[in-house]
Predict the 3D structure of the following.
Amino acid sequence: MKVQILLQILFRLLRTRKANAAELARETEVSERSIHRYVEELSVAGVPIDIIRGRKGGICLPDTYRLPSNFFTKEEYAAAVNALSALYEQLHDDALRTALEKLTRQQKSDARDLTLSGNILVDSGTWGDAYGFSETLKFLESAAEARACVDMTYVDREGTVSRRTVEPHLLIYKQNIWYLYAWCRKRDGFRLFRVGRIRGARDTGERFERRHFERADLPLKFRFEDKELVRLRLAVQKAALPDVEEWLGMGSVRAEGEEIFAEAEVPDGGVLLSKLLSFGGSVRVLEPPHIAAQLRERAAAVCGLYPAAQDEEAAAQDGETAAQDGEAAAQDGETATQGGPDRTT
């Protein structure tokens, strides 16, 4: 019974995205207090249910949430839809109807690829959570196209959680990171939000008029506004040449005889160090000296985390030798104890 109620609540929220405790209590024939307990159990299980207070609030499931892509295989989807359709034709049960609607809607949603234009296909997945991130990106793209106001929960780099209503205007892809450029009603101005830091978002049902902005208004250098620029000069091995060309641009790379050099003005800081470390030993910093020194310090710190196998073997051998010495000493002590009385007679 408990599992059935949990699924009934989940399917209802997947279908309508919002409900209040009284509605769910009537549909499941339990108390409102029990509904709150079931909602809490769903949250603990990983379903991002949100409680919104106020007249227009309720128990909400973000529009960015979908069941995991591997929840059903394609064949299981078809079998489930066919079975529920046949049962509904016979029973006309509301629970069967809502489950059928949920499965059909989920299947259509999963079939939609994210395309930012008719000629560009973007694989938006991240290493950690490809499916959830893609769903968020698809939802924001649709909201921008439909001029739909979005109520979202955002977590900044310091871990501060805020809730705000935004008017999404543009998605920006910069330095391998997706950003949402939106008018924030809380701040009364355009703001950039990292898509990966949006915990949940839903369509409020309100539509907005697009606000005018110029390309020059876009903070495309937002990551480096507070960073000093340095003139970077590198010695590049052939193995790293394609990656360096894509990073700094082919115009920044030149060959001098058998050697390859790259030179460009880049923002100083941790992002630069991480990028240079990603090349391993295929790139060597010639200038500026402080970058080379910082890389040496970071490399030494990394090496300290991974002792060489030879050192580990030597340590193991030392431990084994010490154990053998201990056994020998114990045997000598035992022999001395046994031989003591003989010498005194």
